[in-house]
Amino acid sequence: MTTINTIKTNPYTDQKPGTSGLRKKVKVFQQTHYLANFVQSVFNSLETCDGKILVLGGDGRYFNREAIQIIIKLALANGFAKLIIGQGGLLSTPAASHVIRKYKADGGLILSASHNPAGVDEDFGIKYNIFNGGPAPEKYTDAFFQHSLNISEYYLAEIADVDLDNVGSYNIAELEINIIDPVTDYAELMAEIFDFELLKQQLSSGEISLCFDAMHAITGPYAQRILVEMLGAPADSIINAEPLLDFGGGHPDPNLVYAKELADLMFSDAAPDFGAASDGDGDRNMILGNNIFVTPSDSLAIMAANATLIPAYKNGISGIARSMPTSQAPDRVAKAYNLPCFETPTGWKFFGNLLDADKITLCGEESFGTGSNHVREKDGLWAVLFWLNLVAVKKQPVAEIVQAHWQQFGRDIYSRHDYDAVETEIANEIFAHLIKLLPSLPIQVFGQYTVAYADEFCYTDPIDQSVSANQGIRIGFTNGSRIIFRLSGTGTVGATIRIYVERFSDDVSQHKADPQLALAELILLAEQLSELKQRTGRTEPTVIT
Ligand code: G1P
Ligand code: ZN
Fold first, then answer.
1. What span, in angstroms and rounded, lies between the C-alpha atoms of 361 and 368?
2. Distance (Å, whole) CA 505 – CA 414
């Protein structure tokens, strides 16, 4: 008999999941009982754990292995029947989503702080995904939080640490432990979606040359298996391929600032045809061509417009969804093809119901997230393969595909400005000030911009009618331009203020414009309306994407 210990504990008051699960500094997670409290709260909020199957894996960052050992002991003590764990404790977020679906698990715990830096002084995170493979919707995460505020004990099995490094299946007491290769199931799924034969021809012959930046995070082994071993791309097509506990000290966020090595290459004379990067846990993507960067909003629109060229979507797509701050480029495609188009709050969890109900096939966010109904997470390598497949079929460089798209649909010039680590009190004051301003804004004229509406975004889920209020401030103009303000829900230090600006142009001469210049008037207006610079004392954003 395995001994199950009841451990007395006290609640922590800060275990409220954010945009994407609970994210804190590693040192916070290492406090006595902290991780166990949260996991037990998740388990307590489930109807029962008895006989259930749970998937477990993470992005391999510092504290991943330790956390997995603690969770195994909690899962056994709480009555789970089976744990499916990625070898080495690894599973990319989209792979975890797929494994939950494929093996009909009841849910999964994914250990990751996504693109946040890793290491002893950096970030860790944990989130629960439900049976459909998607992040737990708010009614679940609210329940986790409530349980965490009332917890008084948790249950821990007294067993030795489990060997995570050998694939295989065995039992510890009544619990079946199944250690799986983290890549195999995912790679098989990709081969079902895309034209691997065509890709193999063009990647192995050098007809398409590529550089994929794994940023020393989880996608290294996935890219190695799929792009190199299965599709024949040269081994040196992958850079920063080795996953490291601290992601090499970098910030594994695939954008032009943090994936600088790749960006520099793609804008040089030595640029290959195609460039891409993914983030810490493999769900984000950045797409580049020779001397061109594709904004995530445009990427979603272009994918939607060309979806029927990809084997899995050859019969068409049912609809598109984008998060509210994502540009309106996908809406133009939806309109042209007579497809339903949904605007959801920020965070992948809001796409789950629409995908399950087959209201949409493709969805995406401006924050380098794109995905489809193949899993219930955004998926970095899927997006890379989608673009490669497009380039291979169209036999056109990325830049030509993008310019042809703008010619047909017009261009939504877009940029996001982030102000990181603002004092929480000041950030709250800025938002209070903006909210007070909203009613007075409509029909005011600012230069060439007339305000059409100004509100706080509130979403009613069309499937279950659940309401999510306070999802960001929208100021829309009569010419379709927008300014959006949001507070980040994933930061771990102070508050991060995000300002999103976009302007539509169907003037072809604007199609080469630098977004910062083309948007200068709107950016200035956003700063003036929010009084951001005076109130924070900042002179410029931390990151511009
Ligand atoms: C950020 C992104 C959001 C994404 C989330 C998780 O959240 O903006 O689109 O879903 O990371 O990857 P935020 O920090 O803005 O709340
Ligand atoms: Zn991520």
1. 18
2. 11
Please give the helix or strand (H or E) that residue 521 lies within, else none.
helix 520-530
Contacts of 465 (CB under 8 A, 6+ apart): none
Ligand nearest to the Cα of 112, by number: 2
Which residues 6+ apart lie within 8 Å of 165 measured at CB?
87, 88, 179
In the structure, what pLDDT confidence band is assigned to residue 201 with cuts at 50, 70 and 90?
very high
CA 306 to chain centre: 22
For helices 380-394 and 296-306, angle between their N-to-C axes, nearest 10 degrees: 50
Residue from 281, 326, 365, 473 to probe ligand 1 pocket by mutation (most atoms less than 8 Å from CB): 365
Ligand 2 center–CA 46 separation, angstroms: 25
Task: Say whether domain 411-544 belongs to CATH 2.60.120.10.
Answer: no
Take atom 6 of ligand 1 and give the residue whose Cα is closest.
20
What is the C-alpha to C-alpha distance for residues 199 and 196, in angstroms, rounded to an integer? 5
The residue nearest atom 4 of ligand 1, judged by CA position, is 347
Q: Is the CB of 488 within 6 Å of ligand 1?
A: yes
User: For residue range 127-186, what is the model confidence (pLDDT) as tens digits?
Assistant: 999 999 999 988 999 999 999 999 999 999 999 999 999 999 999 999 999 999 999 999
Summarised one tens digit per residue, pLDDT across range 343-367 is 999 999 899 999 999 999 999 999 9
Ligand 1 contact via 489 beta carbon (within 6 Å): yes
Q: Which of 41, 92, 112, 114 is catalytic?
A: 114
For residue 411, list its beta bridge partners: 505
Cβ–ligand 1 distance for 367 under 6 Å, the answer: yes
Ligand 2 geometric centre to CA of 482 (Å): 26
CATH architecture of 4-182: 3-Layer(aba) Sandwich (3.40)
Please state the length of the chain.
545
Contact 185, 222 (CB under 8 A): no
Asked if residue 492 has its Cβ within 6 Å of ligand 1, the reply is no
Ligand nearest to the CA of 113: 2
Instruction: List, as ranges, residues with CB under 5 A of the ion ligand 2.
Output: 114, 279, 281, 283-284
Residue ranges, CATH 3.40.120.10, the chain: 4-182, 185-409
| 45 has catalytic annotation | no
- Can you tell me which atom of ligand 1 is nearest the CA of 114? 12
Instruction: Judge whether residue 513 has pLDDT over 90.
Output: no
Q: What is the number of the ligand 1 atom nearest to the C-alpha of 279?
A: 12
- In which residue ranges of the chain is CATH 3.30.310.50 found? 411-544
Q: Label residue 495 exposed, middle or buried (CB < 10 Å: 0-12, 13-18, 19+).
A: buried
Note whether 329 and 409 are within 8 A (CB).
yes
Antiparallel, parallel or unpaired: β 238-239 and 274-278: unpaired
User: What CATH code is assigned to 185-409?
Assistant: 3.40.120.10
The one-letter amino acid at 129: N
Average pLDDT of the residues in 524-536: 95
d(CA 192, CA 313): 11
